Amino acid sequence: MFKILTLNNISVAGLNRLPRDKYEVASEIMHPDAILLRSFKMHEMEIPKTLKAVGRAGAGINNIPVEKLTSMGIPVFNTPGANANAVKELVVAALLIASRNLTQAWDYARNLEGDDASIAKAVEAGKKKYAGTELPGKTLGVIGLGAIGGRIANAVIGLGMKVIGYDPTVTIQHAWNLSAEVQRALSFEELLSEADYITFHVPLIDATKNMLNAERIKHMKNNAIVLNFARGGIVDDDAVIKALDEEKLYAYINDFPTNENKNHPRVVSLPHLGASTFEAEENCAVMVADQIQDYLENGNITNSVNFPEMKMPRAGASRITISNSNVPNMVGQITSVLADSGINIVDMLNKSRGDIAYNLVDLGTGADEEVVNKIKQIEGVLAVRII
Ligand SMILES: NC(=O)c1ccc[n+]([C@@H]2O[C@H](COP(=O)([O-])OP(=O)(O)OC[C@H]3O[C@@H](n4cnc5c(N)ncnc54)[C@H](O)[C@@H]3O)[C@@H](O)[C@H]2O)c1
Ligand SMILES: O=C(O)[C@H](O)COP(=O)(O)O
């Protein structure tokens, strides 16, 4: 029986992928084999000794101690693209909210007093304050052209906008999916100087912390609009609020409220709603549950953020999986232990990613704990399983 600890609410559609005769799934469980989570902050958590895998139902992994888990031989999975449409739709909404002054206008309307005739009069007198601008012909700068940024770029071209994108590490697959109309910025500053709106779709990592700061705001057009649906911390909120107060920037729409930003008259802060649609929650949960199941039962790895992609059809009587440091002579030492134990290798796959290497080894016979313990004793071996 595999034990799965959930640290956030995970869509039932995903949890139902894990058959209950083989999986015990609960939000409080001792000795879990795997953890499923969304934005729960795992950094302060003690990692259970039994843990074999972590599955993030979503994209961002800044809440997970990936480096520590890697050093323990534990793969971390996420669900690339599974919530991208949900974020895209919210960003399109945010472009319109900002351009048409919708929150301010709504606030004006809901505070009107008097009978309906005087409200109608006040409506016509007041509406000029909320006149906005239209999207066609304006330029959206998209920072990060991955699953979300790429979809946004393509969608707003359909709305008549021009798009300039900045992503020095874009994958070939994501580049293929981009409309040919997306202009490539050679630097972040070039994008800032051309865009009427900018939107961030990068992970929160050292290189993206305070990526938009006071110095860079100077490169922006007057009255530009900033959208941040990636992570708090990517935009320096102090600098943006100062620029709003000085009427350098026009509006700031984000998914990460703070005491400083949430009540500002030119800011709309939403409660981290980007991925909160029924469809996205279900997509993420199904994807992550399938990946965790295939890893626990077969050792296969799909969509890991720290381990190599690995899939091998089952052959032989049993399979062992081994995570080890990516240093010379590991495969030689592992196969020697198997040979010394009289165990025949039927099939084997070894791949590495950065400092980690991972092996799937199908054996002609069953392997016992003694063999596993001998492999564990090899210097550099991080985790071994028989499945
Ligand atoms: N608001 C929400 O609810 C919500 C939902 C999903 C994702 N997110 C956030 O959005 C981020 C992006 O998600 P995604 O699914 O598009 O991920 P993704 O991995 O598909 O795309 C990220 C892109 O950012 C690029 N990038 C990385 N560093 C960069 C830099 N310094 N400058 C420019 N580009 C850079 C990468 O090359 C990649 O193409 C996630 O990491 C997460 O933090 C937020
Ligand atoms: O990175 C993500 O996928 C989003 O920020 C969604 O987070 P959530 O699953 O906590 O809504």
TrEMBL record:
The keyword Plastid does not apply. Keywords: NAD, Oxidoreductase. It is an enzyme of class 1 (oxidoreductase). Residues 319-387 form the ACT domain. InterPro entries: ACT-like_dom_sf (IPR045865), ACT_dom (IPR002912), D-isomer_2_OHA_DH_cat_dom (IPR006139), D-isomer_DH_CS (IPR029753), D-isomer_DH_CS1 (IPR029752), D-isomer_DH_NAD-bd (IPR006140), NAD(P)-bd_dom_sf (IPR036291). It catalyses: (2R)-3-phosphoglycerate + NAD(+) = 3-phosphooxypyruvate + NADH + H(+); (R)-2-hydroxyglutarate + NAD(+) = 2-oxoglutarate + NADH + H(+). GO terms for molecular function: NAD binding; phosphoglycerate dehydrogenase activity. Pathway: Amino-acid biosynthesis; L-serine biosynthesis; L-serine from 3-phospho-D-glycerate: step 1/3. The keyword NAD applies. Its EC number is 1.1.1.399, 1.1.1.95. Coiled coil: none annotated. It comes from the Bacteria. SUPFAM superfamilies: ACT-like (SSF55021), Formate/glycerate dehydrogenase catalytic domain-like (SSF52283), NAD(P)-binding Rossmann-fold domains (SSF51735). Pfam families: 2-Hacid_dh, 2-Hacid_dh_C. Belongs to the D-isomer specific 2-hydroxyacid dehydrogenase family. Catalyzes the reversible oxidation of 3-phospho-D-glycerate to 3-phosphonooxypyruvate, the first step of the phosphorylated L-serine biosynthesis pathway. Also catalyzes the reversible oxidation of 2-hydroxyglutarate to 2-oxoglutarate. This is D-3-phosphoglycerate dehydrogenase. It comes from Prosthecochloris marina.
